[in-house]
Amino acid sequence: MEHPKSPQVSLGMPVYNGENFVSEAIRSILEQDFDDFELVITDNASTDGTADICLEFARRDKRVRYVRNARNLGAGANFNRAFQLSTGEYFKWCAHDDLLSSGFLTDCVRALDANARHVIAYPRLLGIDETGLLTSYVEGGLPDMGGSSPAARFGLMVAAPGCDAAMFGLWRRDSLAKTTLHESYYGSDRALLAEMALLGTFVHVPNAILYNRDHPRRSVRLPNSERLAWQDTAGCSAKPFEFSRRIKHLVAIAHRHRRTAPLGRTLFHLIAWLSDPLVFARLCLEAVGAVSPRLREKLRGAGLGALNHVGSDRSPG
Fold it and tell me: Membrane spanning segments where (predicted)?
């Protein structure tokens, strides 16, 4: 029996209780001017109307596949499941609350097709509010990786601020399959991007636009305990050591890809990043928080106040 041909692009939409915005997100995908794709929705055992909404889209459009987890796996595992259930040459994660420009896939596919060294084609990221109106937020671009070695690219991504555009860009599947994927701590996506940088370059596609929605229930705005449970329902803790776990993950990544980039070179870039005073202070605050969360918050507040004071002293006028 002849098997159906895999689409060129797979989109994975991990979702949990996303009835607020998931319809708009799915419609922006189905209205793309590129149609050789599948949309795999992995529902993390939602308790709201998410299932009914997604099943209706799947009934009306054969490109949509809805998979419901028997239990909430946590965000990291659900992101991985969306990738594992997909088949396309290129892959993109989609947030249930974001929107895409109509030519997003066309532009990103063209960029990856043009150069086999590119492992991620990433868009311009603009902020929108709950109603879909543009805000003033524009995510800055990533450093140019063109002539950099794998170890240097790793160092660039370890230290890079603002990575949502790359995280929700279009990824080369065979490269992503060589990675550790997401781990079960908040911030593992940053380590995953650094790992992808070891495997190839990222290309900016400014005509592709990701409209990134800000609202009170997005993960970065959740209280710490809720955010931990969102990321990992089985292992959430009041003392998560998220930053320490990222460092450990980055060391494991450097060792995993030591044939691609010598271990000493990747660790050099990692140590250089850790030597930054603000990065080192964050690590120290996490250690203090293990003993006294209240003292950690006091020190963190004092540090932010000092930074604001320095900023005001340096402002013109």
Answer: none
Distance CA 223, CA 49 (A): 24
Q: What is the pLDDT of residues 156-165, one digit of tens each?
A: 999 998 899 9
Cα–Cα distance list, 6 to 39, 63, 88 (Å): 12, 11, 6
Give exposure, 74-84, as e/b (b: 16+ Cβ within 10 Å). Answer: bbbbbbbbbbe
β-pairing, 9-15 vs 90-93, is parallel
Q: Which two tokens stand for residue 311?
A: 């900023």
266 within 8 A of 254, measured Cβ to Cβ: yes
Work out whether the CA dihedral 98, 15, 154, 260 comes out positive or negative. Answer: negative
Which of the 8 DSSP states describes residue 221?
G
What is the pTM for the complete model shown?
0.89
- Between CA 139 and CA 145 the distance in angstroms is 18
Backbone angles phi, psi at 234, to 5 degrees: -85, -30
Four-point Cα dihedral 102, 105, 107, 112, nearest 10? 170
Burial of 142 by CB count in 10 Å (0-12 exposed, 13-18 middle, 19+ buried)?
A: buried
9-220 to CATH, choices 3.20.20.450, 3.20.20.70, 3.40.720.10, 3.90.550.10 = 3.90.550.10
